[in-house]
Design a protein that fits this description.
Layout: H1 2-108, H2 114-130
């Protein structure tokens, strides 16, 4: 009987040990599921942060490109305006030179009377208009 009691005690100890191992395995599985859920959550958070950083970088690059384009446009507009002003100044200088040439021709030509002088001035003016 003693052997049966010991055997029964051994079986009960084995069953208790198996139950304990089963409970520990269930706990480990639960812990693993919690860790997986936590890892998934962290992964989602990291991906969201990476997307936010990417979107911010793209937005900043677009803004920088817009600012650079605006700067180039302003510089180009200023260059055009400068060239336009230079052309106007050049044209005024050419007109001034023509006036001086006409004035020299009028003064150098010997005119016997005022009628000839006026006729000559009209001829020069017509020549200038035609050119």
């Amino acid at each position: 009987m003693k052997a049966i009691g010991e055997r029964e005690k051994g079986i009960n100890d084995a069953i208790a040990s198996a139950e304990k191992v089963k409970a520990e395995m269930a706990q480990l599985q639960s812990d693993n599921e919690k860790l997986l859920a936590q890892a998934r959550e962290e992964r989602t958070q990291i991906l969201n942060e990476a997307k936010a950083i990417k979107d911010k970088m793209i937005s900043e690059a677009k803004e920088q490109a817009k600012a650079e384009a605006a700067k180039i446009m302003a510089e180009t507009q200023q260059a055009i305006e400068n060239q336009k002003m230079a052309a106007v100044v050049d044209l005024k200088n050419q007109v001034g030179n023509l006036v001086i040439e006409v004035s020299e021709k009028v003064l150098r030509r010997e005119l016997s009377n005022k009628a000839q002088q006026e006729t000559y001035i009209k001829e020069l003016a017509n020549d200038i208009k035609l050119n």
